[in-house]
Amino acid sequence: MTLNATAAADIVMAAVESGHSAVTLVTVSEGAAAAAGTRLVVVTTEAGEETVRGTLGSPEVDAAAVAVARTAIADPRRGDGLQTLAGAEIYVEVRRPIRDLVIVGAGHIARPMSRMGADLGFRIWVLDDRPEFATLERFPDAYRVVKADFSDPFEGVPLHRNTHVLLVTRGHKYDYDCLVQVLRRDPAPAYIGMIGSRRRVRATFVQLLADGIPRERLAEIHAPVGLDLGAETPEEIAVAVAAELVKVYRGGSGRSLREMERIAERFFGERGASEDEEKEDQ
Description:
The chain folds into 2 domains: 5-95, no CATH class; 100-250, Rossmann fold (3-Layer(aba) Sandwich), CATH 3.40.50. It is 35% helix and 21% strand. It has helices at 5-17, 59-74, 110-119, 172-183, 198-210, 234-250, 257-261, 263-267, 275-281, and strands at 21-29, 39-44, 50-55, 81-85, 88-95, 100-104, 123-128, 144-147, 163-167, 191-194, 221-222. The strands form 2 sheets. A 6-stranded parallel β-sheet has the order 8-7-6-9-10-11, sandwiched between helices. A 5-stranded antiparallel β-sheet has the order 3-2-1-5-4, sandwiched between helices. Helix 3 (110-119) runs parallel beside helix 6. The chain is globular.
């Protein structure tokens, strides 16, 4: 079955909205067994189930294209680009499941967090029980701004394996009530962050255990939230949280690259570069 651009886009959008990965392969230049302008879409679920729609012109080319799509999906750093297949240039477009960032609380930290989250590619949800705070005017980068009841804040809000939840409400009680609801969800979100001091977080963990939350679930909570940047202002705190979000989904260490590479110490030291190193630089 041949696919036009609109049909392929619809398949991809439905896939990523449902938490699946999708790869579209489009023939840019015609080859021996691949006709120009043909499309093939491969959708893979989290369970590994695979659906193939469209064709690039022959069963042999399609099989090779599916193999390319599988490799692309397996590599979290793989982006879009051209690839030669069966003598033809194929454009490979990789789309991951939509990553939602649900910010619970619409106060001073939520505003820069919404902007930074959107810049990082998250679909932003902002929840608050105060109508004067929960407005699109305050959060123009948000996908949805919801006036929520903190007794059931996630009604109609997606919590799935690609959801990232940040709890920054105006009060510890609201953070705690929302946290308990998140921890009782299955599947667990990709990220649960809660703002708070060491003392407040310790008290939260004690209460969670008393309320029957298994001890192993405590390890899923990023609290105090963010990386240690010495952040103080709302914008700085948002940067620290955004950095932690990138660390979580990219798998970095969070360490300073300067400290990790130690280029000055390794290559120069006190006496300067060696003769060999100087030659390499020339």
